Amino acid sequence: MIHVTNLTKRYAGRTAVDSISFDVGRGEIVGFLGPNGAGKSTTLRMLTCYLSATEGKAKVAGHDIFRDSINVRRRVGYMPENVPLYSDMRVQEYLRFRARLKGMKYRESRSATNEAMDICGLADVQRKMIATLSKGYKQRVGLADALVNKPELLILDEPTNGLDPNQIRQVRELIRHLGERHTILISTHILHEVEMTCGRVIIIDHGKIRASDTPQALVRRLRAAGKVSLQVKGNPQLVLEEIEQMAGVKTVRHVDTRQEWALIEIRTVANTEICEALYELAVKKNWVLRELVQHRASLEDAFVDLTLAGKTTPNGKGENE
Ligand SMILES: Nc1ncnc2c1ncn2[C@@H]1O[C@H](COP(=O)(O)OP(=O)(O)OP(=O)(O)O)[C@@H](O)[C@H]1O
Ligand SMILES: [Mg+2]
Fold first, then answer.
1. Ligand closest in space to the Cα of 13
2. Ligand 2 center to 40 CA (angstroms)
3. CATH homologous superfamily of domain 2-213?
4. Domain residue spans in the chain?
């Protein structure tokens, strides 16, 4: 559905998007993730033909963004970062107007508007002036606008930006629901949102792609360098020596020497589970055990790990692999 090769955008003296390549298949919901200024909006604006690319190639919904921008715009529902709405129009009137602008016939535009309002929960406010709507409802109007002409592909730039937690949850549900019928590329900062809705995540930083994988795989990759901590009463030196012998242990260190409880931190090799063996060892050696924790990596850890400068190489092959 989206096929991008070496796409680049240079603003005066500054490369915002640096030769990125990726694909989005039909029916996928893909999260486009990155810190502020990473190049997310710039990429999405190029893909929707609202900004011209400097170099590279991209096909969106079967059409070339350079040669066939009219068809790209027709086939793609785009919700920009700051949704430009006509605030002195009423919701229904605005959506009908937008549907007509997108080439729909009069009759068709009416039924499509009703459908879009239905999907986005706008029926109750359809006669309200857009200016009087809350931010959450304005976002919904933006979303309804993006999908009113029933595009196969939705490109949404931070659709939950500025919403409260309840509204975020509603919009997230809505996106998941839309994902049943559309291919979706969605940019966001909210990691939880990505974990809940997206089948795949593309992480971009400083205009380059750092990783492209399922949220689970990104976390798993990080968990490869898993961490376990335990607190035992006993001679720390002896405890360390015993743990060092265990299978799956990469490094072990004694973190805290001030108290009678020794806090031990263990790094394990890829995808190993050592908690049970540690417990058995403690029982065997008569160590009094106060705490045994497997530290779970989250998508947030993966994000931080991948976007902290210099920590990774391109293609997401981080040092944890
Ligand atoms: N019109 C412009 N002229 C010059 N530089 C720009 C322009 N638009 C964006 N940039 C720069 O390009 C880089 C990428 O910006 P972009 O808006 O794509 O980031 P983003 O990932 O969407 O960030 P955010 O999370 O803040 O929305 C930034 O350094 C930004 O300052
Ligand atoms: Mg942006």
1. 1
2. 5
3. P-loop containing nucleotide triphosphate hydrolases (3.40.50.300)
4. 2-213, 222-295
* H-state helical runs in the chain: 40-47, 69-75, 91-101, 106-119, 135-147, 165-178, 191-197, 215-223, 236-244, 275-285, 299-307
Token pair, residue 294, equals 């497997």
pLDDT digit string, tens, across residues 119-134 = 888 999 999 999 999 8
Please tell me the distance from the alpha carbon of residue 58 to that of residue 173, in angstroms, as a whole number: 30
Name the average pLDDT for the chain: 86
The pTM (predicted TM-score) of the whole model is 0.76
Ligand 1 atom nearest to CA at 14: 5
Please report, as a single letter, which amino acid is at residue 134.
S
pLDDT digits (tens, 9 = 90+) for 216-248: 887 776 555 578 889 988 788 889 999 999 988
CATH number of 222-295: 3.30.70.100
Q: Are 213 and 22 in contact (CB under 8 A)?
A: no
Closest-CA residue to 82 (of 44, 121, 109)? 44
Q: How many whole angstroms from 38 Cα to the centroid of ligand 1?
A: 7
- Residue carrying the six token digits 């376990």: 228
